[in-house]
Automatic annotation (TrEMBL):
Pfam annotation, one family: Wzy_C
Topological type in the membrane: Multi-pass membrane protein
Cell location: Membrane
Name of the featured protein: O-antigen ligase-related domain-containing protein
Swiss-Prot/TrEMBL keywords: Membrane, Transmembrane, Transmembrane helix
Taxonomic superkingdom: Bacteria
Keyword Membrane: yes
GO cellular component: membrane
């Protein structure tokens, strides 16, 4: 590895990932899909793709070998929601015939359906605690570094090497939601979860990623309004946090829009929104194809629309938007119908990511797969418990007017 890093610097990362794969597979093949979860942080390029895409691809192939039909039918409705989106985006592949379009469509297939299968295998094989523990541990380190950097740079937006402030916020948002949910099948102590929650929250604030803060608030709100796993209580103190944080984000955005700075992030987004609508009008029904901002075949480029719906409209048109929204509505409905012990985490993460995508890039390697991996983990854990005869029943929701004897509100 040392020689490779000097003589073949471009291939050194690929070689390191290969060695890691062989080592993990030699210990336990079912551990290979776990690599895809912390692998979302590997955003550097490895040949034509990012490291996170490479690890996800390896994880998908391994997950397909490990499925063997064991309970995956329980996740079939969730898979159909992803298939619906991908199916309605296929017609534009005929209209927009260029390599980047075909490659990105296949990429999205892996980011959605492949990620769901990877998550399911992780959960069913009993590796959910390891996978999410590794992810949140990295988030805690990033959050602590973001806080330290903010203290040393005069509380300016934080950039950590290759991680942009919004990338930092997107990672920490998911870590915050996982830590706040802390479902019983993770086996984390309350102090561990609360420590991770606080550090991730402070890290998001230090990075000044407003999109992630809003998404995190939505995730926390969903978790707080659903039954708690230990006694059914709902978190009342969260309103003390949600209201001022929400007001802070609103004030920050309003000040940017009211200022004369044409280079502020809020004003820049409005410019990109306008350009995106112009691109969409070139092919409203089917879209102009994936990755148009890199091919420039529309006359526009150099930016990816910082809004999920606008990006989908420009790339795959109104038909694709119907499929995209149908995918999310179906997933949220299915996760909401699950036993809250399993479904609440997936529901909160998917809702948080969808919300964050209203103000930032959505189809980004790593970020776009993580929510579906976690949704798949929820199904996998449920299937594992069912197979082992483990019953996890949530307590009735506790309110001031409806209480279970012995429970304090």
């Amino acid at each position: 590895m040392g020689i490779a890093s000097v003589r073949l610097p471009d291939e050194a990362v690929l070689l390191a990932l290969g060695v890691l794969f062989v080592a993990v597979a030699a210990i336990d093949m079912s551990l290979v899909p776990v690599l895809a979860v912390p692998g979302v942080f590997v955003v550097m390029r490895v040949g034509p793709m990012s490291g996170s895409d490479l690890l996800l691809g390896i994880a998908v192939l391994t997950a397909l070998l490990l499925l063997r039909g064991r309970g995956v039918i329980t996740m079939q409705p969730l898979l159909w929601s992803g298939i619906f989106y991908l199916a309605v985006t296929m017609p534009q592949l005929i209209l927009n015939r260029y390599a980047e379009n075909y490659i990105e469509w296949a990429h999205e297939l892996v980011l959605v359906l492949g990620a769901m299968l990877v998550g399911f295998v992780i959960g069913r094989e009993g590796h959910a605690r390891l996978a999410l523990g590794l992810y949140v541990s990295v988030c805690v380190v990033i959050g602590a570094l973001a806080c330290f950097t903010a203290l040393t740079n005069g509380f300016q937006p934080v950039y950590l090497g290759i991680f942009h402030k919004n990338a930092i916020g997107a990672f920490l948002m998911v870590g915050l939601v996982v830590a706040f949910a802390n479902p019983p099948w993770l086996g984390w102590s309350p102090w561990t979860a609360w420590t991770a929650f606080i550090i991730c929250g402070l890290g998001m604030a230090a990075a000044q990623s407003r999109q992630a803060i809003v998404g995190g608030l939505v995730g926390v709100l969903i978790i707080g309004l659903r039954p708690r796993f230990h006694n059914g209580k709902r978190s009342r103190w969260m309103w003390l946090v949600l209201i001022p944080v929400g007001a802070f984000v609103y004030q920050e955005v309003a000040e940017q829009l009211a200022s004369d700075d044409v280079f502020s992030s809020a004003v820049q987004r409005l410019t990109w929104y306008e350009a995106s609508i112009t691109v969409w009008m070139q092919s409203p029904l089917f879209g102009v194809g994936h990755r148009w901002w890199t091919t420039w075949h529309t006359g526009f480029g150099g930016f990816q629309p910082p809004n999920a719906e606008l990006e989908v409209l420009t790339t795959v048109g109104v038909l694709g938007l119907i499929g995209f929204l149908g995918m999310f509505v179906g997933a949220l409905w299915l996760l909401a119908r699950m036993n809250p012990v399993y479904g609440t985490l997936g529901l909160a993460v998917v809702a948080a990511k969808f919300t964050q995508g209203q103000f930032d890039l959505y189809w980004v390697a790593g970020h776009a797969s993580l929510l579906w991996i976690i949704a798949g983990i929820c199904y996998g854990i449920q299937e594992r418990d069912r197979a082992e005869g483990i019953v996890r029943t949530p307590h009735p929701v506790q309110t001031v007017w409806r209480r279970t004897r012995g429970v304090r509100i």
